[in-house]
């Protein structure tokens, strides 16, 4: 996928996840989560080239200062990832994030070990992590899992589960929770409004 298509995909993802988004211009200019993700992609490429690891860390720290979002350049992040609001988000070095995931402000995807091993979470496709939640250690959250606000997750959870509490406990979604609360078509707007 070309860089312009990838940037467009990110902008479209922001619009899809944030009903307050008014235009592509606004998203590009003021969405700090998007800025952090774009900078992370560059830092991650640098990180994979050993002589550029220190400049990659320097870039990630500069972006942290500007956006309030700290993403280690070693973290692996999939497509259409969205960080809403973003202030205080921390994503550790060995974190793996699938496609179509979303984090809210104050989320930590952190470690619980000082050993140089896989020590950060793995999020499957479509995982949503609520504001202030902490997902700690090499846990795996299955596809479509949702972590409630301020939950502290220290154990893996199956796909399509809901995790709440401290420490978080997983439960299966009920039939009504599997359906979207609102039909996205209800909010479909004329695409010309976003140009």
From TrEMBL:
The gene is cysE. The keyword Amino-acid biosynthesis applies. Pfam families: Hexapep. Belongs to the transferase hexapeptide repeat family. It comes from Nesterenkonia halobia. Keywords: Acyltransferase, Amino-acid biosynthesis, Cysteine biosynthesis, Transferase. This is Serine acetyltransferase. The keyword Acyltransferase applies. It comes from the Bacteria. It catalyses: L-serine + acetyl-CoA = O-acetyl-L-serine + CoA. Its EC number is 2.3.1.30. Pathway: Amino-acid biosynthesis; L-cysteine biosynthesis; L-cysteine from L-serine: step 1/2.
């Amino acid at each position: 996928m070309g860089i312009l298509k990838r940037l467009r995909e990110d902008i479209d993802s922001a619009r899809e996840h944030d009903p307050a988004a008014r235009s592509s211009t606004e998203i590009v200019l003021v969405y700090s989560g998007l800025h952090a993700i774009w900078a992370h992609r560059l830092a991650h490429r640098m990180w994979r080239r050993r002589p550029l690891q220190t400049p990659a860390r320097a870039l990630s720290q500069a972006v942290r200062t500007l956006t309030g979002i700290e993403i280690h350049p070693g973290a692996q992040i999939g497509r259409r990832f969205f960080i809403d609001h973003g202030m205080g988000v921390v994503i550790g070095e060995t974190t793996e994030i699938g496609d179509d995931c979303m984090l809210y402000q104050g989320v930590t995807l952190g470690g619980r070990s000082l050993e140089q091993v896989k020590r950060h979470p793995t999020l499957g496709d479509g995982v949503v992590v609520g504001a202030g939640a902490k997902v700690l250690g090499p846990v795996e959250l299955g596809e479509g899992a949702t972590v409630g606000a301020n939950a502290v997750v220290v154990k893996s959870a199956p796909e399509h589960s809901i995790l709440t509490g401290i420490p978080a406990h997983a439960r299966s979604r009920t039939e009504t929770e599997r359906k979207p609360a609102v039909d996205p078509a209800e909010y479909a707007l004329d695409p010309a409004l976003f140009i």
